[in-house]
TrEMBL record, chains A, B:
Keywords: Antiport, Ion transport, Membrane, Sodium, Sodium transport, Transmembrane, Transmembrane helix, Transport. One of its GO terms (cellular component) is membrane. It is found in: Membrane. Residues 45-431 form the Cation/H+ exchanger transmembrane domain. This is Cation:proton antiporter. The keyword Membrane applies. Pfam families: Na_H_Exchanger (PF00999). The chain crosses the membrane at residues 32-51, 63-83, 103-120, 127-148, 168-188, 200-221, 241-263, 275-304, 350-375, 395-428. The keyword Ion transport applies. It comes from Tichowtungia aerotolerans. Its main location: membrane. It is a multi-pass membrane protein. One of its GO terms (biological process) is proton transmembrane transport.
Length: 561, 561
């Protein structure tokens, strides 16, 4: 044991010597890299286990567990106590910031990926199709949440914020804006309510919420940056900033959509899908950088590039290829956000955080629910829709992180934002599940339209045949310009949409369930029949082609000649 | 236009203001992150295009194009001329280093992934099976390359290296050690020579080369670190260091292999494959950090963790899930390595570089060829084997990067290492292809054993049926404990091995080619027949199960009731 210590000490001296030859900040790059890799190792293991626990035992989205594990191992909690012999604590503050630049860089990369994928998954057709109901529900929730979030900061006594235009107030407004509909979609899929009127309205509203949320962020970033630079923000100037932000968004998105097919046609020259995907992702990062340079935020550029590519046939290739990156890097992002929660700084603002979180619940339920109620839903339906739009997620966290990094909000306010995200995400699932018990959510006079969701169930001999058919069916649907979106649920689930047709396909072992509203059953059955017939033809051809058994005997016969 | 400038200027001022509030190194974290994302965007696009060009038009591995694009955009070339308005050049030196810590961190992460995957793909069964021929060829090339590489540095006049134990000399030795067999495997697969005696010998030699190369690196890192810390390295001490390095490697690998099944059984409790893969990768990073702390290099730990997991059934899950990460991050690594080449620093060492590269060719051809010749090959066969072992790749680059970051080698020597990698990788393909023209490579007296490689060709009605069968066949082979390794070639190619059976499966549109030596044809045909019969049964069952067409009419019938 003694020699080990001696050697460790020698190694340490060697490392020190090496460190000093590098002309870095006193710590050699080799040492920095070792620390980074050990940090990443701990982060990924703890975050994945935390995510699993919250999914499995709390029936909550994994993001909560990832955040919580970050809080646990952050420099303000256990992190400072994880000490490497001779190297000191693994997680420490770096110039008042909970992560080193190299660790924060990986988290930032993950946030770009997150928003690029969010853009890619946006269903622009639904945006146009459901423009009335979607925009009313989405915009209602957005405006209410923004105003209430901002006003809470202004009216709360003793925090030094007295102005609606104060950058910190603007940030507290915009942080509470973006709904994260993933957990809602999962619950709707599990309860087979995705094709219900409430389900369709929530999903349409979420598309608007996404798009308008990004625009709102663009405006606020512009205002905050001017405010921060000491300029006084008057209404005329706000008009200009808003016009610029909206202009940037609309112009770049329109250009992107207009040239998406040309761009992808050029990218397809590379033949290899790996190269195409990597270049599209490179373009997303490039636009992210441009957006930041234009005074907006990087995630806005990443989202726009995703949006522009969402209608091309590369969209699902990109999604599939980025799945692995998503799986490794995104938990790192959430965990790092958790690490930044400084419990000491939060103590004085706990009450404010509780009120802010509560109002964030109220603002979405009222802001989305009331417009829905005004349209064609009864109170039950309106509540369902409001609760469905309740959870906040990755965008709230990213925006809070941007604010913290830029010094616009302080550690305490950052903690409040995390608290609000956690509260809304935790409250939504149980309330949503409960709200869906009982009668129709449509008003009596509106209830004429069919609301029954029927399930078509097919069973195949083995799981791989089911998978094979489902794969062929998904491809056939995409060829017919259906929007087919894979949900991140435990079972392989696809949401399919085109015009006002909408259904959900769930693979369940060797079974395949297709849930569709009664009015679309005919169409779904027809398409499925067509696919089954073509599969049957294919199997026939394979059987007969040379007869598989003959092929087998042929193979064997050759053995003896 | 004028207002744009004014606004850009205002934004810049705002950014400055923001930057100054962060207590960083004077540049705010927000600005650093923007720069990082723009750097990554440029790197990934340029690297992917470069890789494509080198593959498509030069018929060279993409790594060459990725390296070259890095040289092009590095701070010592065009990089300093890519200037952002108001933000300065995108690529600059950071304290004498061509990459910022946050960019280098991502490259380091990529190098960990590369070596983790290399470990995962190691065929330990082949290691034991071919221990004689493999160890003789692998070890012969390794020792020759190391000694010649080190001596070249010592004997070259005027570089200040006079001692075989000089850390720089040791690094020049170990950099030239590791063969990168990827390009060779591709050529063997294309020329259908993978199952030939030369092919089998090269692939067996490469396994040994990998494992012993990592051990050699461990020893050299230990020696270099002691040397760097001012300690004089005497032979007794070397013995201790070598024993420690080998001890670490053998002990950790043995523990890993012994507990791999227990570890994976524990990890499998998480059910979700995404979580399992992420945790395995986290463990690889953890072991990487431990290896560095123990005075070795991080990639050694990553490789060992891969090796330990290579025999578990998680191995190919991990490979598949990490493909996307590989596709995005690994080109960044190669490009960053290229960026570090300082042309000015290389000028004085160009001649040395040429000689070093040439000797790196000679050392592998002789070091691997001669033992092969002594065993059962004629000169032709020996040359083929030597040329197959010639290319150096990712490990050489990673080791050179470690040496540069630690200050053990200087910019010029780093450039020499890159030059050697490029030269050996470029020379191998044409020479190898040429060498395989002509007669058998076995000596006359040995030529009794069959050497003919036959192709079994099957054709199916559609591409997806071929893929379906191939997928089932691969799974069946893995269940029977065959080692099935997917090669990174343009066509989907699998190398299959168990005991001394070895064959290659190539998917080619709706055709499937299986190349096997004549002596294994019988077995392959039997297994394939079995699989075809079980497929035929499955198709029968699917056809009959309710008859797909009936299922179709059933679906339609339901429409009217």
């Amino acid at each position: 044991m003694d020699t080990t210590n001696v050697v460790l000490h020698t190694v340490h001296q060697a490392a020190e010597a090496v460190a000093h030859t590098a002309e870095g900040s006193g710590q050699g790059i080799t040492h920095m890299m070792m620390l980074l890799i050990i940090q990443l190792a701990i982060i990924i293991i703890v975050a994945k286990v935390g995510g699993y626990l919250s999914q499995r035992f709390l029936k909550m989205p994994s993001v909560l567990g990832e955040l919580a594990s970050g809080m646990l191992i952050g420099p303000y909690a256990l992190g400072s106590k994880i000490v490497l012999p001779d190297f000191g604590p693994v997680f420490t503050e770096h110039a008042g910031f909970a992560a080193s630049a190299e660790l924060y860089g990986i988290a930032t990369l993950a946030s770009i990926i997150l928003l690029f994928l969010a853009g890619l998954e946006t269903d622009i057709a639904a945006f146009l199709r459901y423009s009335v109901v979607g925009s009313v529900v989405g915009l209602g929730g957005l405006l209410t949440a923004f105003v209430i979030g901002d006003l809470t900061a202004v009216l709360w006594p003793g925090n030094g914020i007295h102005n609606f235009m104060d950058p910190a107030a603007l940030f507290l407004g915009v942080i509470s804006v973006a709904t994260s509909v993933g957990i809602t979609a999962r619950i709707l899929a599990e309860k087979r309510k995705m094709a219900s009127p409430e389900g369709v309205t929530i999903l349409a509203g979420a598309v608007f919420d996404d798009v308008f949320g990004i625009v709102a962020l663009a405006i606020v970033m512009g205002m905050a940056k001017v405010s921060m630079s000491g300029g006084s923000v008057n209404w005329g100037e706000i008009g200009i900033i808003a016009a610029k932000a909206i202009g940037f968004f609309v112009l770049v998105t329109a250009l992107g959509l207009a040239f998406a097919r040309k761009i992808t046609a050029a990218i397809k020259q590379f033949k290899s899908k790996e190269i195409m995907v990597a270049i599209c992702f490179g373009l997303a990062m490039l636009l992210a950088g441009l957006a930041e340079m234009a005074g907006l935020a990087m995630i806005i550029g990443a989202y726009i590039m995703g949006l522009a590519l969402s209608r091309t046939d590369l969209a699902h290739e990109i999604e599939e290829h980025l799945e692995g990156v998503n799986n490794i890097l995104v938990p790192i992002f959430f965990c790092v956000m958790g690490m930044m929660v400084d419990f000491a700084a939060m103590k004085p603002v706990l009450l404010f955080g509780a009120v802010y979180s509560l109002l964030a619940v109220v603002s979405k339920v009222a802001g989305c629910g009331l417009p829905a109620w005004a349209m064609r839903f009864n109170m039950r339906g309106a509540l369902r829709i409001g609760l469905g739009m309740l959870p906040r997620g990755e965008v709230a966290l990213i925006v809070a992180g941007i604010g913290l990094a830029a010094g616009i909000i302080d550690q305490g306010t950052f903690g409040v934002a995390i608290m609000m995200t956690v509260v809304t995400t935790m409250l939504a699932p149980p309330l949503l599940v409960k709200s869906f018990n009982g009668e129709s959510g449509l008003r009596k006079e509106m209830a004429g339209s069919s609301e029954d969701v029927d399930s078509i169930d097919l069973e195949f001999p083995t799981h791989d045949i089911t998978e094979f058919l489902l794969g062929r069916f998904v491809r056939a649907l995409r060829n017919e310009e259906f929007y087919v979106n894979r949900l991140h649920t435990e079972q392989l689930t696809y949401q399919v949409r085109k015009d006002d047709i909408m259904f959900v396909m769930i693979e369940d072992g060797n079974k395949l369930h297709i849930n569709a509203a009664e009015e679309h059953q005919t169409l779904v059955r027809l398409m499925l029949t067509e696919e089954l017939l073509s599969l049957s033809d294919l199997l026939d051809a394979t059987q007969k082609m040379e007869d598989l058994q003959t092929m087998g005997s042929g193979l064997l016969a050759n053995m003896f000649c």
